[in-house]
Amino acid sequence: MLETLFVKDFAIVGAAEIAFGDGLTVVTGETGAGKSLLVDALLLLAGNRADAGVVRHGCERAELIAQFSLADAPAAQAWLAAEEFDEDGACQLRRVIRSEGSSRAWINGRPATLVQMQALGERLIEIHGQHEHQALLGRNHQLALVDAYGDHAAALAQVGSLTARWRELDAQMHALDGGEDNSERIAMLDHQLAELDRHALSAAELAALDENHRHLANAGQLMQGSSAVAELLDGDSEFAALRAINRAQNELARLAEVDPRLTPARELLDAAGIQLGEANALIARYRDGLELDPERLAETEAQIARLHELARKHRVPMAELKVQADSLRGEVESLRGAGERLIVLGRERERIGAEYADAAKILTRLRSATARKLSTDVSALMGELGMAGGRFEATLEHLEESVPDAQGLERVEFLVSANPGQPPRALRKVASGGELSRISLAIEVAALGLDDVGTMVFDEVDSGIGGAVAEVVGLKLRRLGEKRQVLCVTHLPQVAAQAHAHLQVAKSTDGKETEISIHALDARSRRDEIARMLGGVEVTRETLAHAKQMLEAGSRRSATGN
């Protein structure tokens, strides 16, 4: 429930804070006084887009704040908790619109997006505008209204889920059966797979091939180099390392006999001689094992070239050719099993189709019962709204579609006959704007209160009616106010007299600036306002008396529940 609304520098409002209570609250005022500004403020707090034009002239920004009670709003409480905006049961929406056109929003003091404001606003407040009846002309809206009126959400969700599954299976079948000939694709893949199986190497095998290629390609350099090293170690030259170290060993052995302190040095030279000898033997064996093999080198280079070609052909690195082969093998197996898979998918699609048909028939039965009840309720309300003998029919039109539809097997068309003896015609073809407005109002009244939104706002939806019909509209809104919080902007005294609370919007100017003020009316000022609405410019004693009678009648109805 909306508790308070604060607006500052909004349009022609300087600053105002309005408190709201239970029941029906009406907002009245002179034509052009700005009665609908409260509705505009609530629309912006509910996530509607804003422009710089809503900022009061000469001000930097407009600020809007609404405080809601969540006592009867479980859906809003759950949403706040899920989005981590919950704050000890509080619910405050704040919006700031700057003069250059930018805006910011907060929920319980935390920054929020407009999408989040819209999602929360849908759970807190329901706004019916002056021209909302135009939406009723759309057939999709008519179908949605019937489903909402009959609470078909579960049945509709089941139909939608089965439709989505059927279409998913159908798409899979088309993917398997709608491309190029599978036999040709399999033959091509078999050829590619055989080629990969012959030549592709694992990462370890590829590393070994690379090492072998380097060995063969550099065999001449290795033979020449190892021979040169062997010559340095034990060649004919007197400078060969083994000969030089042998001379040093003999000399140190003779000197160590004179001075034993040289013995460790001699032992180190002995060890070095052994190491050099082993190195020389190893190099000799390596050199003797080397041979130039141009044929093997050519074969290795040809193998590497084939691998490069395969990598380019399949657009993968050489090291991933084995992985590519496994991928192609999986595709071949999948294509060879496509026939069997098509049979399995076809059976599943047939089963889902049968389940859809059953679910759609259940939805059809529910819609048929709901359409009859809605037709009866709206026809009765049309009579109360000054269209005696008028008739409303919500008709179902069966679709001839051969595939499942998420909306079910039918569409809805609203038909009306405004006068006795006239055949019903499509609502969208009703010529009279006044008739359309009243018929639409009857549909809205019949469908009111279908959800758990705690606050409902009506912005002059009673335009184009008057007299006894206006009184009936006021009674309907008052009764709705017994169950929900209702805020109604109206120009009709018959509606205003039914309210539990009354706000007056007044516009004033000093010749330079224009400003509006919003006041909660007491019993006396409320009588004066209704008298103004009845009598126009001149308010007489008779008008005041009439206004008093209307208020007393409204109070009696409230006390008796009529």
Q: What does this protein structure show overall?
A:
The protein has 562 residues and is α/β, with parallel strands linked by helices. Among the domains are: 1-129 and 460-562, P-loop containing nucleotide triphosphate hydrolases (Rossmann fold, 3-Layer(aba) Sandwich), CATH 3.40.50.300; 182-336, no CATH class. The chain has 18 helices and 15 strands. The chain has helices at residues 37-45, 74-82, 114-124, 139-149, 153-177, 182-199, 203-217, 219-234, 241-258, 263-289, 294-314, 321-336, 338-384, 433-447, 467-483, 493-496, 523-535, 541-560; strands at residues 2-10, 13-19, 24-29, 61-68, 92-98, 103-107, 110-112, 125-128, 391-398, 410-417, 425-426, 455-459, 485-489, 501-509, 514-520. The chain has a six-stranded antiparallel sheet with strand order 2-1-4-5-6-7, with helices on one face. Strand 1 and strand 2 (13-19) form a beta hairpin. Helix 6 packs antiparallel against helix 12 (321-336), helix 7 (203-217) packs antiparallel against helix 11 and helix 17 (523-535) crosses helix 18 (541-560). The model has no long low-confidence stretch (mean pLDDT 85).
